[in-house]
Amino acid sequence: MADRLAGSLSPHLLQHAADPVDWHPWGEEAFELARHRDVPVLLSVGYAASHWCRAMGRESFSDPRVGAAVDAGFVAVLVDREERPDVAAAHLAAAAALTGQAGWPLTVFLTPDGDPFHAGTYYPAEPAPGAPSFLQVLRAVSTAWSSRRAEVAAAAEHVARALAARRPPVAGMAGPRDLESAVAQLAELEDVEHGGFRAPGGALRPPHALVCEFLLRHAVAPGTSASARSSSQTALGLAERTLAALGASAVVDPVGGGTARGALDAAGTVPHPEEVLVDAAVVARAQLHRWQLTGAPAARRAAVDGCDWLLRALRTPEGGFGAGLDGEEAERRWSAPQLAAVLGDDDGAWAAELLGATGEEPRAPRLVRDPWSDPRDAERWSSLRARLRAAAALRPQPVRDDAVVTAANGLAVAALAEVGAACGRPDLVEAAERCAELLLRLHRDGSGHLLRVSRDGVAGLAPAALDDHGCLADGLLALHGATGEGRWLDAARDVLDAALDRFTAGPPGRLGRQGHGPALHDTPHDALDPHLSRLGRPADPVDGAGPSGASATAGALLTLAALTGSGRHRAAAEAVLAATGALALSAPVSAGWGLAVAQAALSAPLGRPVVAHGEPGRGERPPAS
How far is Cα 279 from Cα 299, in angstroms, rounded to an integer? Predict the structure, then answer.
């Protein structure tokens, strides 16, 4: 059974190669076997750096009892969400439709035709209050399949039809009043005590860097009316408080420099154990733009520290960047005794007070005051931090997902290029160039089409999604702005033209009319997966940790149009932005980059170059993508 996964490029699949579960990769062979055996498909979707995916792997998938139950009643399929975002997105939507929630690991039961009929996320090895064990779930699903087949089949067909009929609301591109309304809604969501934006009860509080990008752009948007001036002031205050609170929280590790996926508590003292490339890149870029607009020294330091962490923690020998880390916080927690053991009593006590780690139990550190405001404190902290990093390197190290994903690496290229150019760090620009060269050289198939992922210098077979095209083009345009080299502009144009040709809803290259569905889909029309066709072709405008495919592509199209004067690319950007208009009105916290691009579209007429970076504190407009 291990042989099916042993040749995979996916770190997530390789983590499960020795499981007692007879895993199959996604594909026709697994579904054909399920039809032949007349059993359901058990689909598990996860990723290598996911804390809870690895927990379920240790607790359940490595249990011989689970392996026997799965193999007796199911065909088991394992998917890496980084490698196959189309499979992940389709079944996330299915889980949300079935249960109202979704997450990682994603566990979905399918008919042999591929229709989902039961779903969940992490299942514990033993029953817990309100949560059955995974073995109980397997037995219940197997019983339902054998004794209530008609009921299960009807429910599965209903879910598949509902998913296939989904159409994201399209309200046209957001206008000035819509953007002011979005700022007002975000102001109502602000957590005035802790900073950032309130999350539903118990939910992860992400960094919200993309929302801050919109707020920063809105703060410098032209407008002379009283309402426009008031909205700009509100936006600037929201962005400044949110990014300042983020920098002072435990989400950003003041010792190691990494950025967690978010906080598990409102106060930001308990970071999520995962540190992911996407979050680190977008936070570094947002902090750079905050510095450029306000001149806040802490913002510049945060931008540079974030980029330095990328190079130190995630860079691969080939010059790309791995997807993220999961250390279960072990290497980044400190107690007062641990600090004293590394630094000595005097320096240890000083560091413990600075990091809020004064207790006996290790905890995630955070800066309770700014050590950089006093030159003596800054010198002392720089020295102590280097010693703590050296000590942390001797601890058990985090698990690294070293898959090089095109979209995430495009975001890294953009952050490194802009931060390096603005902050006088040519080494960061050089790292961005090396990564871009790797993507353009290695992440191509025989027809020249983009591919999604590589590992150890070998490209996978999965085709790139829309966000891969948009984020890569965005990074290439940032490199053009940082270096002035025309090759990056030409490469970005090629990537975007490929997106306009292959991701359209109708005939290749035709975007359709605004108001009649999305202009672009998340998957290419010439590489559709037949097993996903029953669930519809995805076109999700929601921005998560990184931009959606629609907003990333719209932003890159807009920048290209501003730099070249191309009316065709400007029109395409506006058509794609139509998918974000309704989201901007209903859920602006989930449309940060789409709103930022819409703001740039209103503020930058065709042919007006977009400022890539500027002198801090002078109110230069942040870049359009």
Answer: 16
Burial string for 188-220 (b: 16+ CB within 10 Å, else e) reads: eebbeebbbbbbeeeeebbbbbbbbbbbbbbbb
CATH number for the domain running over 176-328+401-603? 1.50.10.10
Q: Classify strands 106-110 and 41-46 as parallel, antiparallel or unpaired.
A: antiparallel
Pick from 481, 452, 479: nearest CA to 467: 452
DSSP code at position 219: H
Tell me the pLDDT band of 465, cut-offs 50, 70 and 90: very high
At residue 260's C-alpha, the angle toward residues 94 and 296, to 5°, is 125
CA distance 290 to 293: 5
Is pLDDT at 490 greater than 90 in this prediction?
yes
Helices (H), 360-483: 375-392, 406-422, 426-442, 466-483
For residue 362, name the pLDDT band (cuts at 50, 70, 90): very high
Q: 3-12, 244-253, 380-389: which range is least confident on average?
A: 3-12
pTM of the model: 0.92
In angstroms, the Cα distances linking 183 to 61, 102, 288, 599 are 45, 28, 21, 12
pLDDT at 551 over 60: yes
Write out the two tokens for 214.
């919109």
How many CB atoms within 10 Å of residue 18?
11
* Residue that wins the pLDDT comparison between 472 and 578: 472
User: Which residues make up the CATH 1.50.10.10 domain(s) of the chain?
Assistant: 176-328+401-603
Architecture category of domain 3-164 in CATH: 3-Layer(aba) Sandwich (3.40)
Given the DSSP bridges, would you call strands 324-326 and 458-459 parallel, antiparallel or unpaired?
A: unpaired
- Torsion sign (Cα): 542, 480, 410, 496: positive
Helix (H, G, I), strand (E, B) or coil at 559: helix
Lowest mean pLDDT among 159-168, 209-218, 465-474: 159-168
Convert the pLDDT of each residue in 567-590 to its tens digit. Answer: 999 999 998 888 767 777 788 999
- How far is Cα 424 from Cα 422, in angstroms, rounded to an integer? 6
- The CA distance from 301 to 111, in Å, is 52
In degrees to the nearest 10, what's the CA dihedral of 187, 192, 197, 199?
-120
Q: Where in the chain is the domain with CATH 3.40.30.10?
A: 3-164
Which residues in 85-122 are b (16+ Cβ under 10 Å) and which e?
bbbbbbbbbbbebbeeebebbbbbbbbbebbbbbbbbb
Report the alpha-carbon angle 453-523-262, nearest 5: 60
Exposure on the CB side of residue 218, measured as CA atoms within 13 A: 38
Whether residue 164 contacts residue 97, with contact meaning beta carbons closer than 8 Å, is answered with no
- Report residue 615's pLDDT band, with 50, 70 and 90 as the boundaries: very low
Average pLDDT over residues 199-208: 80
